[in-house]
Every structure is written in C-alpha cells, then in structure tokens.
C-alpha cells in the first residue's frame, strides 16, 4: 500500500520569501507523485507530477518539487511567495498513472 503525509497543517511565510510545503510518501516501488492546489472558491487544479527521469520537476505558477528517494520526500517549493499563493495544497501518490482516476491517495 502507498500513502503520503503532509506533516504541517499550515505553512506561513511572508510575501517575497521562499515557500516550502512538505510531503513524504510511503511506497516500496517507483512511485508516481503529484501536487494539486485548490485556490479559494475554486476546484482542485493540477500543479506538477513526477513520473521518472529528472528529480527536479518544474510546474505552473513558479512552483517546483524535488523527488528525493532516499528521504522518501517530494516537497513543493517556490522561490518567492506571493499573496495569491494562499491556498490548499495536496500531495498525492499512485503506483500507476492510468489508475489515478479511481485510486488517488491524498492528504492535505
């Protein structure tokens, strides 16, 4: 079984400072990892994903995440936070790309 953990309920940073939203995962194989964002009064939006290859993944809105297999982490980062980044962020893991629609394990 696979799972993700976001250890911090809330992350507070000043505008212009670096932003990190932490995510660790539990999975013995090669995981597929995802970040989603939900802005106020909007639906869930895809930010970025790690499938394989380059460990540093660049996404939309200036976000990136680095896959770290030894630390089983996939932290979301942004060099300079702005007010519009205030939102809910969801990390997700799956053992397949095709099985995502019915089988996403998320934690916010």
UniProtKB/TrEMBL annotation:
<keyword id="KW-0675">Receptor</keyword>
<keyword id="KW-0393">Immunoglobulin domain</keyword>
<keyword id="KW-0732">Signal</keyword>
<keyword id="KW-1279">T cell receptor</keyword>
<dbReference type="InterPro" id="IPR051287">
    <property type="entry name" value="TCR_variable_region"/>
</dbReference>
<keyword id="KW-1064">Adaptive immunity</keyword>
<dbReference type="InterPro" id="IPR007110">
    <property type="entry name" value="Ig-like_dom"/>
</dbReference>
<dbReference type="GO" id="GO:0042101">
    <property type="term" value="C:T cell receptor complex"/>
</dbReference>
<dbReference type="GO" id="GO:0002250">
    <property type="term" value="P:adaptive immune response"/>
</dbReference>
<feature type="domain" description="Ig-like">
    <location>
        <begin position="2"/>
        <end position="108"/>
    </location>
</feature>
<protein>
    <submittedName>
        <fullName>T cell receptor alpha variable 3</fullName>
    </submittedName>
</protein>
<keyword id="KW-0391">Immunity</keyword>
<dbReference type="InterPro" id="IPR036179">
    <property type="entry name" value="Ig-like_dom_sf"/>
</dbReference>
<dbReference type="InterPro" id="IPR013106">
    <property type="entry name" value="Ig_V-set"/>
</dbReference>
<dbReference type="InterPro" id="IPR013783">
    <property type="entry name" value="Ig-like_fold"/>
</dbReference>
<dbReference type="Pfam" id="PF07686">
    <property type="entry name" value="V-set"/>
</dbReference>
<dbReference type="InterPro" id="IPR003599">
    <property type="entry name" value="Ig_sub"/>
</dbReference>
């Amino acid at each position: 079984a696979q799972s993700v953990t976001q250890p911090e309920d809330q992350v507070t940073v000043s505008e212009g400072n670096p932003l990190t939203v932490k995510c660790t995962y539990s999975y013995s194989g090669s995981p597929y990892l995802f970040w989603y964002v939900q802005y106020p009064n909007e639906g869930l939006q895809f930010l970025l994903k790690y499938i394989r290859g380059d460990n540093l993944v660049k996404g939309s809105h200036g976000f990136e995440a680095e896959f770290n297999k030894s630390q089983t982490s996939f932290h979301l980062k942004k060099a300079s936070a702005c007010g519009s980044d205030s939102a809910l962020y969801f990390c997700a893991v799956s053992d397949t790309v095709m099985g995502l629609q019915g089988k996403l394990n998320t934690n916010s």
